[in-house]
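Appendix B. Chain record.
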Amino acid sequence: MILIDGKAVSAQIKKEIAEEVLQIKASGGKTPHLAAVLVGHDGGSETYVAAKVKACEEVGFKSSLIRYESDVTETELLACVDRLNKDADIDGFIVQLPLPKHIDEDKIIEAIDYRKDVDGFHPVNVGRRSIGLPCFISATPAGIIELLRRYEIPTQGKNCVVLGRSNIVGKPVASLMLQKAYPGDATVTVCHSRTANLKEICRQADIIIAALGVPEFLKGDMVKEGVVVIDVGTTRVPDASKKSGFRLSGDVKFDEVAPKAAFITPVPGGVGPMTIVSLMRNTLLAGKREIYK
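Structure tokens predicted for this chain:
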């Protein structure tokens, strides 16, 4: 069993990005600038945005953090998006999800200029990804694909089961694994809460990407020997032994599945670090105008 080390891979990619930023600056080019809009004080969102700001510092980007209280109106937030769309110094920006219930997330996402949509959620980027055109690919699926690439895990012709059908992970990673590319060229099955014979389907999989958000859902009796397992889950589970009062649990029951796996990601330290670094890569592409001129 080989443990897929997302921390080590992300550190290497950060180094590559930082070196490219130094070259851009040395040649008189513009420093990439990422902005983040944070609404309210959700613990997970606070942690994630703080990690993004830190990553920007590490790779030499400029970063801006725009905060609103949870009672901000949809009109005010749309006005902020409009300002960021028009700000020539900002190459890419994100509006951190989830948003308060009184705000229509789809309306906010669709208001973002797709050329600055480094989260890859705008319908233009989603559509272009679905047919294999250049676009900003959402960060977590992009990170998963990069882990498969860096570990040289075969995907062509393999049976890939994706657990989960969210717009953020399940659907996009399934689409990427179908593409005529490497990693890709897999035979993909997407499973969800209404899937029949789930255990049997999983036991036929060469690659399982678990993105349900259900702690320890994938058990040892649901996988075959030699499977590749990518665990996307990061659920906070109460744990009195931890200073924080909780621990992060993946969607995979690691101690049961790992002995049967050829490759497996841990939680934490697997997919998580790759999500942040994929956002940095998208911001670099936005700054260089490589996708949208």
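Further analysis of this model is presented in Appendix C.
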